[in-house]
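Dig into what follows:
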Amino acid sequence: MHEQDSMWQAVGTNPSGCRPVRPVDWAPLGDAEFTFVEMIRNTLPDSDRLPEGVDKFQVADAWATGLKRVRGGAGFEHSWRDDSDEILNPSWVTFLSVAFDRTSGRVAAVGRLTHENWAASPAYDLGAITGSNGMSWAMNGHRDGLAYPVWGLYVGSFATGMLAPADFRSNLSSVDIDPATGTIAVFESLGSVGCVAVYDHGSRSRRRLTVVEPITGNERLTFSADGRWLLVPRDDRSILCEVATGRHVDLPIANADWWPAADSMLVTMRRSDDGQWAPYLYNLEQNAWVQKLPDIHVDDTSLSDVYMWAPVVSPDGTRALIRTHAGVDDQYRQAYGAGAHLIHVDLLSGEGSFPVTPLLDRTYPWERDVSDARWNGEPRRTTVHVHPDIEAAMQAPTFESEHLAPDFYSEEAEEFMVKTINRAIELTQAGQSMAHLMPDAIAALAVLRASRDRWDGQQEWLDGLTEVTSRMAMTGELAAVDGDAWTDFAKAFWQLRETPADIPNPISASWVSGDKHWRL
């Protein structure tokens, strides 16, 4: 792999005289024992219960504004948080899944911009999750939100304070990093099908391993400690996929994760006949269940009535983070249902507790819904060997799906790019900086180019825009940083116009200075 093709090189090395266009302080992450991603569940009152003249969007706006005051700048959208419940992501981006390597300082995230980037109401961040932006809210006149924004790949570095968009070509639900090689794995969530893919050694080139179908849309994936396998846990089974070949097999073990304290071992939650939940270990080399750990005990009377799943075990094998519906009372559950709450468990005793309260506020039904939890520590370098029966059941990779077409998300990319560039124009005309918007706009531009019809529909506008902004940059009518940003966008557009297969690097535009010749 050429050094210029490395995403890690691009974010981890500060070019002379340059700084991140949106610097991020990653320092709090170094002290965290574990992290998790959560959102606040949509428990807004039904429209027919609202006062006359008030619609649900207005309530969502008020609630989101209130949430931002108590959640460190996050509204309903997903936020990445540490074990003390401090927010780790900046407010301009929301993360669905985050992987980080403490030793190298590398961060990979599934993320997308929040609506503050377009000076829009935080209610639209909820509407982007529920679909209301493209349906009921738009029909009621609230049309400033992105209808169905895509979750893309972001990469960052502790060393430089960088966080930058890397690839928006697909909609993602999960990400992981192999610390030994820097390879990034993602799960693409493509409507009714999914796809496991990797960026070998952190290169910009995506290698798809296999299609997975059907999917629920919230799949996650994790590397084995030796980096040879990826595990995709599901409610009914878990999928084991070989990184080198894309061969895969369905394992009859639901919601499994890697057990870090021994070779070839998985862990999952199972419920015994007496109703007690406990972690169980499964050995892939033996193809058999091998151990039951102590039953889980949590000081919550509703525990026997709920599900427990997705154990994530600490590197030393003594503790686990487990998701459960426990933590809210029956009255609340009857009114609103229940989300996924995090419990911290001592695996030696089975004793567990809630590291953060499931409900933020007793006045409002603001309930956490956890979607990702990870330990912040160096994993043991265990190896994975599989039983001959598992090896024999391996299936060849498949790539037969219309959802894999390069223009599958071109409509979403067009909406995003047009909205972002229009906002950049507004800021430029107001004499305000807009350079922070350009990396994401360039990432979306590359997806738009995959659709000939959509590209042709925007080309005349973009031809005129890039000609004007480039002239203004050359004559000094724009501030140095913003002039460079508009020039970055123009170069990306011209590159795609002449050579569609030559995808621009949005990370490049995430460094700003008065002199950009280092990027040529």
